[in-house]
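Incident log, structure service

09:12 report received: a user says their structure output differs between two submissions of the same chain.
09:20 pulled the input from the user's history:
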Amino acid sequence: MTRGEVIQQSTSYVDSGAFLDDLRRRVALRTESQDHNSLPVLQRYLSDEMSSALERLGAACTIVENPVPSGGPFLIGHRHEDDSLPTVLVYGHGDVVLGQEERWRSGLSPWEIVIEGDRWYGRGTADNKGQHTINIAALEHVMAARGGRLGFNLKVLIETGEESGSPGLREMCEQRADELAADLLLASDGPRLAADRPTVFLGSRGQVAFTLSLNLRDGSHHSGNWGGLLRNPATVLANALASMVDGRGVITVAGLRAPEIPSAVREALSDVSPGGGPTDPDIDDGWGEPGLTPAERVMAGNALEVLAFVSGTPDAPVNAIPATARAHCQLRFVVGTPWQDLGRIVREHLDTRGYPMVDVQVDSTMAATRLSPDDPWVRWTVASIERSTQKVPVVLPNLGGSLPNDVFAEVIGMPTVWVPHSYPACAQHGPDEHLLGSVAREGMQMMSGLFWDLGELGSTRPGPAPAAAE
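09:34 re-ran on a clean worker, output below:
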């Protein structure tokens, strides 16, 4: 069987309704990792759905208990064909965010797929059940076409806690780094740049969540009797924040600003224009770091965001000076930012600006990662996708959002390439989440081509100049 025939057969898997049948069954499982009562369903997703799919690939499967007590289990699958062949690690997550049934549009349900035109509604259709269903099915079609062989070694990792911050993923991978080691991570999550543009991204911005707060006294005091005499915590905190990020969104704390953009990253982003979709907000001119394009601001720059600010009783204000104020903040950052020192950097900044009374607490962190767009695996991936779709894919050095890619890039130590099968307006994490049937169809074509081409490498690895056409 030829490469073209494999792609045609895998496309028929979507067109025939077989993909829909698999996805319906998986979406019906309420794998809400943010609901602590969902552990039995998470277990069943791995033991019933994922194990049976991977065993059809001839993979030996192990369900691994999470080293963190509150975390969901992991599934690791292995198929080893030959020591000389390249090894790929495929990752996905079987958990979803809370269903939020009451917020979905009439006629839709998070646990049952409803098709309206090109949109396939259901929780997990886009994030991430639809995406890893595509990848596993593409592996099946390639193996069938090669008479029961893939032509490479396969490792699969499915976690069940990504939507809860991937608790235990780092610890588990540290314990099993040799077992999970591979030449390449090839995974799918997150959105394309746009629905009609195949996309490859190579990492993600990191994030540090932190809280600024101050408690000046017990209880509030009448603003008529005490106004002008008592320090107002909301005023103090507002000015402390303004000393860190100005009214144009520019970070003014030197240690939190992004490093200089590498030339390869700048070149990769030169033809990238974020937004522009029918439901996307308009990008604000004059916001963020000056001198950068919109793509550079969101994918090669840092952003300091105030996510929530509270003082007093906003829904029922009274004539009183509040006693406390609190702001939940977040730094989205790129590789090269000293994020591990954020607590110290912010503390020193506030102290020198006259705000020693403001408390700084670092809440959660995720590291930034970025594979160079010049990496041979990136060029190989781009050439394969172009060959399958006749489209030149967008290459993003990293997403603007965050994924646990640091575990694969740093803990296990491998190049990381992500090929997403969703799009920005998919409503992931909210009501009316959906997958586009057209993107799923093209995703099957891309992944079947990629896995076929991986099996063609034999004992070689991508060189400096891979072929880009038939």
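09:41 both user submissions now match this output. Likely a transient worker issue. Closing.
09:42 reviewer note: The chain has a mean pLDDT of 96. Residues 258 and 337 are 6 Å apart (CA to CA).
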